[in-house]
Every structure is written in C-alpha cells, then in structure tokens.
C-alpha cells in the first residue's frame, strides 16, 4: 500500500474505483455501514501502519466521492418515459407503468448511434425529444420537467435514449434504411417494450446491459415507412454521422482491396468494424484469445503514431512539430475507429504522454494510465462495468507492472525476444481472470497463438494494410499491389488459427470466479514474480549474488575487498552459492518457503476455480434450462456425471424467397444460450447426451454443444428424423468417434451408486434390421425414462402423445410413482391424460414452454388436470430456469423469475 503513497494520483484513482465498485455491488445502507467501519479503522492504520494523516484522508475522500458519484448517477438513471406516461395515468388519462409494454407511440428524436443493418433487422439508438401515445397526450422530453408533471424528478437532461429494433417488410426497404445516419432527426412510430431480463441463472441480462447505457425501453417497429427523416440542425451527432459515413466509405474501399472474408477482417483490424468478419473466422480468434487484435487499442494507436512520427522525421520535420501533428492525429483516429473504451483509453494516454514529453514531465506511465481512467470515469462512470474498459486498463497496468518482473527470467535471450516473451506472458496472466469471468473459456494454446500471430499481424499486416488503403487514394492499382502480401499473410494467419483451433484437448472451460478469487490471483502472481525476479537478479554466470537488502555485512565486506584490490566501481563482488552465514541461510530459505507457499496457494486456487459449479458431493442437480419453445435439461449426479437431455432449437418458418432476411450471425439457441450456460457452470464434458426425439425444438441446439464439448455417448430413440439438423448431428458424432446408442425399454444406465436411469420407451427394435428407420412423426417415438437419484424419482417423456402413453402404461406391471413429472409436449392437450397422472402420481410438474409461443402451450385442459391433483406446477415461460437440488429424498426448488 505504501506504493500508493508514492503515487498519489494512482492511489486516488484506485480508491475512486474501489468506492464506485462497492457502491455498485452492495446497497446504500450496507455501503455506509462498511464506510463507517473503514472510518473507525483509519486511526489504527495511521498509528500502527505509520501512514500520514493527510494522505490517508485524501484516499478516504477519493473512496467516498467515487461511491457518491456512482450513487448520484444511479439515482438519475431512471426512465423519463415511464414517469411521463405515469403522469398521464395519475390524471386518469393513461396506464400504469407496469402495463406500458406494447403501448403504441409516436416519437421524435435524433439517431445517436451507428445504424446497423443485418438481414431484415435494423437497430439503432435514438435520443428522444418528444413521445406521444397514439390516441393520447404528448410528453415533451426536451425540458427538464415533463409537461404533465412539472414537479417530476429523475429527468435525464437532454432527453432519454431508447433502442430501436425495426423489422423491414421487403428487400426494397433496404435502400431506405441504408440512408439513415447518426445525427438525423426522425419521426418514428412503434410500440414500447421493456428489455428482457435474464431467464436463466447466469444468463445474459439485456435489460441490465441497456441500463448501463442509460437505455430503459425498446421501440419495436415494422417497415421502413415507420421512420420519417426530418430536417435537422447541425450538431455533435450530425458530425459523428459524417464520421460514420467516412468509415463506411473506407470499408467499401477495403472491400475492393481485399476479397471475400478478408474484407471483413481488415475492416476490424484497421477501422474497428468487427461485426463484418465471418462468424466462423471470429470464432477461431475467440477460441485462441486473439479478439483483442480486432479491438482498436493501444497497439493500433502506437503503430499508427509510430508510422506518422517516423515519416515526419524522415522528411526532416522537427521533433516538436512532429509531436504536434501526432497530437492532432490521435483524437481524429479515435473518432474514426469507433470511440470504443479501449481506443479512448489509448488515445487519452497517448495525448497525455505526448504533452508531457513536450514539457519534459513524462516520468511515470502508471500515473498517465491513472489520469486516463479518472477522466473516463468522470465522463461516464458506467465505463467501470464495460468489459473493454476493464481489459484495456487491466492489461495496460499489468504490462507496466509485470513485464519488468518477468524479463529477468529471459535474460539469456536477445533483448527483442525476451521483451516479446515478457509482454505476451504478462498480458496472458493479467487477462486470464477477466477472460474466464466473462467468457468462461481459456485455450492452453492462447500463449503460443499470441506469440506467433500478434507480432506478425501487428508488425506487418496492420501497417501494410493501412498503407494499401492510403495508397489506393493516390493510385488504386498501387494499393492493390501493396495488398497482395497482406492477402497472403491473412490466409496464413487463418490457416494457423484453424489448425491450432482444431487441436483437441487444449480448450478449458471455467465457471465465473468471484471477485475475491480474481484479487487473490493477481496478488499471488505478483508475489511469485517479484520474488522470482529478485532471485533471478542474484544469479550471474552460475553464481549467486548477495541480496543487498538481506546481507548488508557481506556488502560492506565486498566493498572493502573492492578497495583493496583496486577494482573499478562497476565491478560487483559475488559469493559462490553455499558460503552464506547462518542468518543469510535462514533469510534465503524463508524466501523459498514463502514462494512455495504462494505457489501451492495459487495452484489450489486454480484447482478450485476449474472445478464445476456443481462438483462431486452428496447433492444431485436437475436444471431445466429456459430455451424458449423447446426442451433442455442438465442432470448432474452426486458423483459429478453430466447428462444433457435435449438442447432446445430455433424453429425457422422462412421461405426460399425470404433469403434476404437471413442475418450474418442468426440467433441459434444452442450457440447463444445452452453452450454459454454450460461453460459458465464449469461443465468440462458430458457423460451422455439424450435426444428424446428428432424434432427441431429438442435437438436444434445440440449441434453447437457437440462442436464445443467432449461427449462420451449419444442416445437416440432408434429412428432418424428427415432433417438436415439430425443428419448434421449424426455426422458430427461419427466424425468425433462418439458412440451412438438406440435407447429401448429395459435399458438401464447407472452413472453412480445413487443414480439410475430406467428406459421405459420406445420398444426394442428387431435386431435383424441393420439400419435405423426414418420416421417423419417423431413425437410418438419419444424416449421415456425414469430417473432415480438420491431417493427421489423423475419422469422424462419428451413429446409423447396420448396413444404412446397408453402403450407405456400397458407394459408397466408393477405400480411406480414419481416425485417430479416433466410434462410432455410443453403441456399440449394431446398428452398428459388422467390415466397417466393417476398411475405416476407426481407431486410436481415442470413444463418447458416458450413465453410467446404460437401454439397456445400449455393447454388449459392440461393445467386443469394438474391443478385438480394438487400438483405444484413450474413453468419456464413464467419462472424462467427451474433448478432442483436432491438430497436424501428431499428436494429444493428455485427458479430465476425473470
């Protein structure tokens, strides 16, 4: 902590961030209780820690102001739309705030973001100045108070932002949407909708995500005619729209210079347009931890600044003038590349650094980094929760702190090699906790990929690609010639990423660690590197030097010997290992013990961090994941075995003529919901995957699971569905040498002593039949199995229909009952008969069903039958994900309740 006293600005910023973070993590009453405790500890810190009163007071003040500033912004981050329409309701002319969903409105506002066009979907953010409920009264947001509520509080000055989601009706409307730009004033009609919250534990919370962008409502519209462009005045947004137009034109030029997917890649690399890289190519970068290459950051700014400064100096421009030109270039480059937190950070640091260099005041890069962080957080405190902000500042600080500690390990290598190794290793160490916290995966090949590709991309592809773009304005053929080696290099880059990504066994999945785990990881790594760096400095030519801080007597003895022998002052005296006094031996071995203790602690942390969320123990778990209209259940046995039953699936009703509607990266429930949740829960492999039947809403998401996770076995119902999805799943399983079994009545699986799966349906097939039959109607052939775990029983039935239920009951000879029934076919009226319920006598029913499904599931008759039997009914459309813990026959149920 004393380092903070020697860097006051760094200490102030750290305390500001700590105060803001705690104000975000805990409620106000608990924060001020904690603050009071810290205040009471201050005298003890000053007396026993010998901290100066004034400096400690400044740090406490920074901590307090940071927290108050966060609370102030949170108190103002409220919806004016809600308040304005609620004011209408209070006068008897409107509806309640909770009932505003679906309300038709007409708005006037200014587009304040990029206009993103993907397929038939157009997304942008609008800053509202006026909103009118169709058939109602107007709410003017240009004033500090609403017209209907002059005394209202919590208004956001300048109007509230809303996110627009517009669905185009015909391909001809794409031209109209392409003319919309940031800064245009528009009139828009649509319906208000609240953003969706997370429907699964640990799932993505879109409402919270928009909240931290100060957005509280979606406006959903249909057709380009819903938008009317109005004549607007010139302003900051219109200027940014001009910058967007320039970026688009640069992107079009890059498309002419580079073919196919390379155009999207170079757009991300040079001007920060990441969304246009092919999803498959982007996934390769993601798996190897290389996405930072596409995020415009310090390395991009440094390379471009270095090129400009070098060219100016070659043209014999004075150093002062060259620095001034660079100082002007940096903010322009920040604007051009998209104004992301990482490029803002690097831009501020570069500008501060250049200014301090010109004044001769550049002494400490940590202080420059701290100043950049404080400026950004004063401008927008919610940057603190931005992943790009966190990674950018953490990695930059880590490079400053860790690189000097790592370089001594590579003293025997050339300076450039040791520097590259130290920088790459430091970046990996610092980014690792944040990577697994947000993305829940880490490739063991990441370090190798970064060592191989980052220098090549940053040192060759980026500058040459930029040169090709700039030279194309002088003579386009010249730009094409310069682009040739870049094309070859890009092909080699993605061949390398594809080859590395195809190596199995190197991808690891981690549950999201706690903040305490992350802090301890950084602390232990720093201690290990610090002690190791000191030891490395004490070794020269196979000998060990005396540490100046632990052997002052030996140092004096060496000085006397140096004078006696008249050695020059630059020559150091070393003792051969093993000639220490007893006191020196104890000190050295204390350090060895300390390093060993820290190394063991770090290893244990990594071990527990890698363990699944539901690790081995006495408790069994069932997680009914909300995948919309579909089924997906993860069973984790007491021994830690994982069985996935179905995987949901996105059902498409598109026609061939609707090909223009297809998005570059369409939503797929397996890739967007199931796989991220499995990773977040630390699932490393699946012991079995059960496909109850071949309908899309049950198996569509399993393709993504097979591609991401090792799977020991796949169980199907003894038939194949005539669909591309089923064909692709089977081919993937065969190519990965995953055994495929046909489940049948009488089959038993025993993952452990306390878990048993008895398969009740379908019936065994004729063994003479070598091939699996194709069945168009898959529902009657659904797999039915009874799960018994920790003395509790569960029945899974897929989409079984009434006729098949009767067939199963005829085959049952001894009475059985279950505690929990997975209700068939999402609660369809074609299943779950009275006889079925009377036989199994379930106490709990779980219905997996979409919140806005078009089938009317669950049917009222089914719900009535369940209620008549006094069953507790849990539904994913109303309660989100449903989780059941089982131990000694007792069950504990919790649900997400979105």
TrEMBL record:
Alphabetized, the UniProt keywords read: Cell membrane, Membrane, Transmembrane, Transmembrane helix
Ranges for region Disordered:
138-158
Q: Does the keyword Transmembrane apply?
A: yes
Q: Where in the cell is it found?
A: Cell membrane
Q: Which reaction does it catalyse?
A: 3',5'-cyclic UMP + H2O = UMP + H(+); 3',5'-cyclic CMP + H2O = CMP + H(+)
Q: Could you tell me the membrane topology recorded for this protein?
A: Multi-pass membrane protein
- Bias-annotated ranges (Polar residues): 142-152
Gene3D superfamilies reported for this sequence: Ribonuclease Z/Hydroxyacylglutathione hydrolase-like
Q: Which SUPFAM superfamilies match?
A: Metallo-hydrolase/oxidoreductase
Chief site of localization? membrane
User: Known SMART domains for this protein?
Assistant: Lactamase_B
Cite the Metallo-beta-lactamase domain residue spans from the record. 629-851
Q: What are the transmembrane regions?
A: 33-49, 56-72, 322-344, 391-410, 417-438, 444-462, 469-495, 515-533, 592-610
Q: Which CDD domains match?
A: ComA-like_MBL-fold
**What does the protein in this record do?**
Counteracts the endogenous Pycsar antiviral defense system. Phosphodiesterase that enables metal-dependent hydrolysis of host cyclic nucleotide Pycsar defense signals such as cCMP and cUMP.
By what name is this protein known? ComEC/Rec2 family competence protein
From which organism does this entry originate? Paenibacillus puldeungensis
């Amino acid at each position: 902590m004393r380092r903070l006293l020697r860097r006051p600005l760094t200490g102030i910023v750290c305390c500001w961030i700590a105060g803001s973070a705690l104000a975000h993590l805990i409620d106000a009453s608990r924060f001020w209780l904690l603050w009071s405790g810290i205040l009471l500890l201050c005298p003890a810190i000053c007396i026993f820690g010998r901290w100066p009163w004034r400096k400690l007071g400044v740090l406490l003040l920074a901590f307090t102001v940071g927290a108050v500033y966060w609370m102030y912004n949170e108190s103002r981050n409220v919806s004016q739309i809600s308040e304005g329409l609620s004011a209408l309701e209070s006068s008897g002319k409107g509806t309640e705030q909770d009932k505003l969903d679906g309300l038709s409105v007409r708005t006037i506002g200014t587009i304040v973001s990029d206009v993103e066009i993907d397929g038939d979907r157009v997304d942008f953010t609008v800053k509202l100045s006026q909103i009118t409920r169709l058939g109602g009264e107007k709410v003017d947001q240009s004033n500090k108070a609403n017209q209907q509520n002059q005394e209202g509080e919590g208004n956001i000055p300048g109007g509230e932002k809303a996110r627009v989601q517009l669905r185009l009706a015909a391909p001809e409307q794409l031209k109209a949407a392409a003319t919309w730009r940031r800064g245009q004033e528009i009139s828009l009609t649509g319906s208000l909708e609240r953003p969706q919250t997370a429907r699964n534990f640990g799932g993505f919370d879109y409402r919270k995500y928009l909240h931290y962008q100060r957005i509280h409502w979606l406006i959903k519209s249909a057709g380009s005619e819903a938008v009317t462009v109005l004549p607007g005045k010139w302003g900051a947004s219109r200027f940014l729209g001009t910058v967007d137009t320039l970026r688009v034109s640069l992107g079009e030029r890059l498309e002419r210079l580079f073919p196919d997917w390379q155009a999207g890649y170079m757009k991300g690399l040079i001007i920060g347009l990441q969304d246009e890289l092919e999803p498959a190519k982007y996934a390769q970068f993601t798996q190897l931890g290389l996405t930072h290459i596409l995020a415009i950051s310090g390395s991009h700014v440094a390379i471009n600044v270095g090129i400009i400064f070098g060219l100016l100096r070659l043209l014999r421009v004075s150093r002062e003038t060259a620095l001034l030109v660079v100082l002007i270039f940096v903010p322009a480059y920040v604007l051009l590349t998209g104004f992301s937190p990482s490029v803002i950070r690097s831009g501020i640091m570069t500008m501060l650094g250049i200014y301090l260099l010109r004044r001769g005041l550049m002494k400490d890069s940590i202080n420059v980094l701290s100043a950049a962080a404080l400026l950004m957080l004063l401008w927008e405190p919610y940057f603190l929760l931005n992943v790009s902000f966190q990674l950018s500042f953490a990695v930059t600080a880590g490079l400053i702190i860790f690189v000097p500690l790592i370089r001594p390990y590579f003293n025997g290598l050339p300076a450039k090699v040791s520097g590259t190794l130290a920088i790459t290793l430091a970046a990996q160490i610092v980014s690792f906790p944040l990577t697994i916290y947000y993305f829940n995966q880490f490739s063991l090949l990441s370090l190798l990929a970064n060592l191989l590709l980052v220098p090549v991309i940053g040192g060759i592809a980026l500058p040459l690609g930029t040169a090709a773009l700039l030279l194309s304005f002088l003579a386009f053929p010249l730009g094409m010639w310069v682009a040739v080696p870049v094309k070859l290099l890009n092909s080699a880059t993605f061949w390398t990423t594809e080859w590395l990504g195809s190596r199995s066994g190197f991808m690891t999945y981690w549950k999201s660690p706690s903040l305490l785990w992350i802090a301890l990881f950084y602390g232990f790594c720093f201690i290990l590197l610090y002690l190791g760096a000191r030891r490395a400095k004490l070794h020269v030519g196979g000998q060990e030097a005396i540490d100046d801080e632990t052997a002052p007597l030996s140092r004096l003895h060496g000085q006397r010997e140096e004078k006696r022998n008249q050695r020059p002052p630059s020559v150091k005296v070393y003792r051969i290992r093993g000639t220490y006094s007893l006191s020196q031996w104890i000190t050295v071995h204390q350090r060895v013990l300390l390093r060993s203790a820290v190394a063991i602690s770090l290893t244990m942390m990594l071990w527990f961090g890698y363990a699944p969320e539901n690790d081995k123990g006495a408790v069994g778990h069932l997680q009914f994941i909300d995948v919309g209209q579909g089924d997906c259940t993860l069973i984790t046995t007491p021994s830690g075995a994982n069985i996935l039953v179905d995987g949901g699936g996105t059902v498409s009703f598109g026609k061939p003529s609707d090909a223009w509607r297809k998005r570059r990266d369409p939503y797929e429930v397996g890739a967007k919901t199931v796989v991220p949740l499995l990773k977040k829960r630390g699932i490393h492999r699946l012991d079995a995957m059960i496909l109850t039947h071949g309908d899309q809403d049950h198996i569509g998401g399993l393709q993504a699971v097979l591609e991401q996770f090792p799977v020991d076995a796949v169980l199907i119902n003894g038939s194949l569905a005539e669909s591309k999805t089923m064909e692709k799943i089977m081919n993937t399983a065969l190519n990965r040498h995953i055994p495929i079994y046909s489940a049948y009545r009488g089959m038993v699986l025993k993952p452990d002593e306390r878990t048993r799966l008895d398969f009740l349906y379908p019936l065994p097939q004729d063994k003479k039949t070598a091939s699996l039959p194709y069945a168009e109607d898959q529902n009657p052939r659904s797999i039915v199995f009874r799960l018994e775990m920790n003395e509790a029983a569960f029945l899974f039935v897929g989409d079984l229909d009434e006729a098949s239920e009767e067939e199963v009951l005829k085959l049952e000879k001894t009475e059985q009952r279950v505690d929990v029934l997975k209700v068939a076919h999402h609660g369809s009226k074609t299943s779950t008969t009275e006889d079925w319920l009377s036989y199994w006598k379930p106490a709990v029913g779980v219905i997996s069903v979409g919140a806005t499904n078009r089938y009317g599931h669950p049917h009222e008759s089914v719900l009535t039958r369940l209620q008549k039997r006094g069953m507790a009914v849990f539904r994913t459309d109303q309660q989100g994900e449903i989780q059941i813990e089982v131990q000694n026959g007792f069950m504990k149920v919790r649900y997400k309740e979105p």
